[in-house]
Specification:
The chain is mostly helical and about 80 residues long. It has one domain (about 1-70). The chain is built from four helices and no strands. It has helices spanning about 1-15, 15-20, 25-55, 60-70. The longest helix is centred in the middle third of the chain and has 34 residues, at about 25-55. The chain starts with a helix and ends in a 13-residue tail after the last helix.
């Protein structure tokens, strides 16, 4: 929902050049881009850790521990593209 709202906001800014030229709007746009970049980097780190964890579940001795403590593979963090 947030992604959809942002797409609409930026589409609206394209229709209204004064809004797009506004210092406040440009500041918000830059902050949102920075946040998006941070989320993308953190998602990549998380997904790499999930890959390592999930892979480790298959090998000795972890595969024995998995059975005792019922560890389960984790899902990757995916973001739906709009």
């Amino acid at each position: 929902e947030l992604n959809t709202g942002l797409v609409r906001l930026f589409a609206l800014a394209e229709k209204y050049p004064d809004l797009k030229a506004s210092a406040n709007f440009l500041t918000i746009q830059k902050q949102l881009e920075d946040i998006e970049d941070t989320i993308a980097r953190k998602r990549e780190v998380y997904n790499n850790q999930v890959r390592v964890y999930n892979s480790s579940l298959r090998y000795f001795p972890m595969n024995l521990i998995v059975k005792v403590f019922k560890f389960e593979p984790k899902e990757y963090f995916e973001i739906e593209k709009v």
